[in-house]
Amino acid sequence: MKKLTNLLGLICCIAFISCNNDDDYESIPSSSYSNSYPNVVATFGTNLDLDHLYNYANQTIPSYITKDNSAGNSINDKIATLGRVLFYDKNLSSNNSISCASCHKQEFAFGDNVVASTGVNGTTGRHSMRLVNSRFATETHFFWDERALTLEQQTTMPIKDHGEMGFSGLNGDLSFNDLLVKLSAKNYYKELFQFAYGNQEITEIKIQTALAQFIRSIQSFDSKYDTGRALAPNDGVPFSNFTQQENQGKNLFLTPPTFNASGSRTGGGLGCAGCHRAPEFDIDPNSKNNGIIGTIAGTGIDVTNTKAPSLRNLVRNDGTLNGQLMHTGVITSLQAAIGHYGTITIAPGNTNLDPRLTPNGVGQQLNLTQNEVDAVIAFLRTLSGTDVYTNAKWSNPFPN
């Protein structure tokens, strides 16, 4: 009888959620989770309402968005809610000072506004990448050098890093197993893992699954570009809501250039979409090094960086950048970013330069006019939304 009652309750809950069309909030039939999970209530108060979960699983995604790397780990509201807590919890670092959100800040589209992010034993070796729209890409590898095969694998690698979060098991660090013991002693995690997975056991796979679901839920499709794209049959036609300059910039972004034998552009556009593919503006998985081979420290050659975040939300609502660009953070303006691709110099030792940047075997010379640069900048600004910066579903659940 008890099993039947539980099954009926689950069916009713699923039926209720599937009929709810609200895009931000999932109202789960009151089952007094607040009574069942008192430590969650005591820790988070009204910041985490298990009776009324945010909608992570069934957010509206435009029909023209077709790329998705979440195969095998579909988003579930309960598990993503746990992921939100893990993402913001400084207990995941060895000295309780650093969380995932310390380097991936909501106010910067889940990137960072400093070149190197602070860790428990130093700073990050590369500039922290923006996480917004991580789900909507063909590329399944993560980190600038693609060393993580999946987002799930990526989520716990910073935790295991000596410099970043300090549970490396090396250099005198505690191990990841020590972290599992630490989290298991937190009463709110006992309840949250029970809530999300049906039992209190905390494992690395469960942590990876939850963090990946929360990160993939962070999406932004409320930009000026999206308004125009929804009214257009494809990206190639002028958007009715764009200015003449923005449409010019879009055309330059999408159109491949033509070159002469010396690598100078003779016509066409800039060809940005060859690597940053509309409408997701994700990086082509076949992309190689983009010509920036330095390190944050400014010394040495590193040609392994071949991934990039989506170009969406490069700038904030006030027009300023969401932090520095490139893995070194060396680019600090959209004009400088476009200028970098305008004149490609094949640096000695760069054995991994993307061939699309070397027409006829030489570095491309786009010979950009200021009018063209301004137009592309105007277009790139249309890719930024507003909701991602303030939506509570992606905010810190811990009381201040």
Automatic annotation (TrEMBL):
One Pfam short name: CCP_MauG
Subcellular location: Cell envelope
One GO MF term: cytochrome-c peroxidase activity
Organism ancestry: Bacteria, Pseudomonadati, Bacteroidota, Flavobacteriia, Flavobacteriales
E.C. code: 1.11.1.5
Domain of life of the native organism: Bacteria
Keywords associated with the record: Heme, Iron, Metal-binding, Oxidoreductase, Peroxidase, Signal
Uppermost EC category: oxidoreductase
Entry keyword annotation includes Heme: yes
Domain Cytochrome c: 78-187, 244-384
Gene3D superfamilies referenced in this protein's UniProt entry, alphabetically: Cytochrome c-like domain
A GO CC term attached to the entry: cell envelope
Protein name, entry field: Probable cytochrome c peroxidase
